[in-house]
Amino acid sequence: MTVAIIGGFGLQSFLPPEQFLPTYGFSPAHLDDGRAITLITALFVHGSWAHALMNAAGALAFGTPVARYYGAKATGALAFLLFYLVCGALANLGYGLVHAGDPHLLVGASGAVAGLMAAAARMIAGKGVPGPYLSPPRGGHDRRMGCGEPADRRGRLRPRRRGDAGGLGGASLWICRRPGAGDPLRLAITSGCSRLICQQS
Description:
Elements: H1 2-12, H2 17-24, H3 28-32, H4 38-41, H5 49-70, H6 74-98, E1 105-107, H7 110-126, E2 149-151
Antiparallel strand pairs: 1-2
């Protein structure tokens, strides 16, 4: 995922933003147009090198324990990829439902990374396997970290408004509690629409 994020933005940087952002970026208005595929494609489009590198670092840091849980076989890699995509798609969907009809574009993998963050937190609580849903806090975090970058159709980042949500808080719902990488019935699926809430301070 880290390579895909960095490589994807590297390719993106050679193209005029107006060529691909309206096609691949997500906007709540796209849901009304039946363009649900942008829930996924927006995960591979970023607003700047800083945005892409931050998400790549987050995917590497928090994705590693989750990937180890699923295992190195092809089925484990596929399970991890599906988990990542479901996290990001639900994050964008949550944003779309909160901001129904908004034409502004949202780009970035922050929702997927926040899902990995929530999953990694459960791994810490469970010492390598999914731990309890509620566990004692193990340290603070910056709620502004990992927020998606809102962009206009020309690729310019737009200023945040107070209370402008990049989506809903990251909370992970794991359907099955038993460890196991290959069995699809044991896949962990994130429900939290994992974009962290951003507010202008």
